[in-house]
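Async update (no meeting this week)

Hi team, since we skipped the sync, here's where things stand on the single-chain job. The sequence we agreed to prioritize is pasted below, unchanged from the tracker. I ran it this morning and attached the output directly underneath so nobody has to dig for it. Comments welcome in thread, and please keep replies under the output.
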Amino acid sequence: MQINIILAGVGGQGILTIAAVIDHASLQSGLTVRQAEVHGMSQRGGAVQSHLRISDKEIFSDLIAEGTANLILSVEPLEALRYLPFLAPDGRIVTATDSFINMEGYPTMEQILDELRQTNHPVLVKAAELARDAGSIRTSNMVMLGAAAPFIGIAAETLEASIEKLFQAKGADIIAMNIRAFRKGEALSQLQATAT
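Output:
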């Protein structure tokens, strides 16, 4: 088993938290994890990306070669497009449809979605809406993690336990809210899978 994941978004959207949960859950599952440095954190709103590799065998490189990513998990739709060259032919894109317009010439959502729909059954998530339903817009990254969970290769229960561990210091209410957000994303992903 080997899963190559590109995490993409903009600064301030919780990419580091998503990576921390996946890293912890991978280790709890007895898997090897390699993560390339997260780039772009120097500017809030600037592009952020990280390469995350999970395997049941030794991994010799942190970086994912073009055309070999099993999953692009993006919390911003234009950032999903930016990393399309990394996607394997049968790879999946899970992306939020909530745009963070931080540049001139930002394409229309229609243009972005037209491109994304040319990939292998992309999972398109209204993350902000689901996060609000879970209790806070700040949980949108956990919504996205939940939507990507079916493609990560780690049991959802293990990911939830890692969310609990990561948010332990913030108290039971914050843990519960983040797990609710995760489950909302996971339910949406499963619903979209049965519709295709």
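Quick observations from my side:
The chain has a mean pLDDT of 89.
The helical segments are 15-28, 77-82, 109-116, 127-134, 140-148, 156-166, 172-195.
Reply here if anything looks off.
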